Amino acid sequence: MTNNMKKSFIAIIGSLRKGSYNRMLYEAAKKLLPEKIDFKEIPIKNLPLYNQDLEENFPKEARELKDSVKKADGIIFFTPEFNRTIPAPLKNAIDWISRPYGKNSIAGKPVYVMGATVGGVGTALSQYNLKQALLYLDANILGQPEFYLSMAGQKFNTNGELTDELTKNHLKQAMERFVSYTDQFSLIK
Questions:
Q1: DSSP label at residue 98
Q2: Mean pLDDT on 123-152
Q3: How is the chain split into domains, by residue range?
Q4: I need a labelling partner for 86 at 20 to 30 A (CA). Which of 13, 64, 121, 131 fits?
Q5: CA-CA distance, 31 to 49, in Å (whole number)?
Q6: Three-state DSSP class for 172?
Q7: Burial of 184 (C-beta count, 10 Å sphere; 0-12/13-18/19+)
Q8: In the beta sheet, which residues pair with residue 110?
Q9: How far is it, in rounded angstroms, from Cα 34 to Cα 31?
Q10: Mind listing the pLDDT tens digit for each residue in 50-69?
Q11: 7-188: CATH architecture
């Protein structure tokens, strides 16, 4: 794949809330990506709770998630922070992506992790926990720049648009860096 060819990125958003700041962050990131990137959310709200008994006949939603991860040129996780870790729906999605044993869909994939929260810690702890799981699954995580959006309620307007210029610039740099990072993997294909 050359640098001019269209790429497919997927977003996995850990928050199920309608007014989620992580969904707003996804929308802001989407606007900052070059046109050559097709970036869509893969919803996780309808995934059944992971149960090994279901592996013989994978649920449709889990199959679609695994297939999307396999086909993606890049994966960006948007995680809130609940009780200093990732939310249950996001952990559930990761469990489905990694199963059945030996058929982990995310191994070798370029991944970026970011998050937004109304608190002051900026999802640092949930991102740390998420990255631990992803590293175990052999995902290729872009480590720098880190992106922790704290005080998110002050950074978006009532229409959900990112209005803070400093945050916009940091997000643009992060997206440019991730696109560049995924180019390395395109050359390997």
A1: H
A2: 98
A3: 7-188
A4: 64
A5: 32
A6: helix
A7: exposed
A8: 140
A9: 8
A10: 999 999 999 999 999 999 99
A11: 3-Layer(aba) Sandwich (3.40)
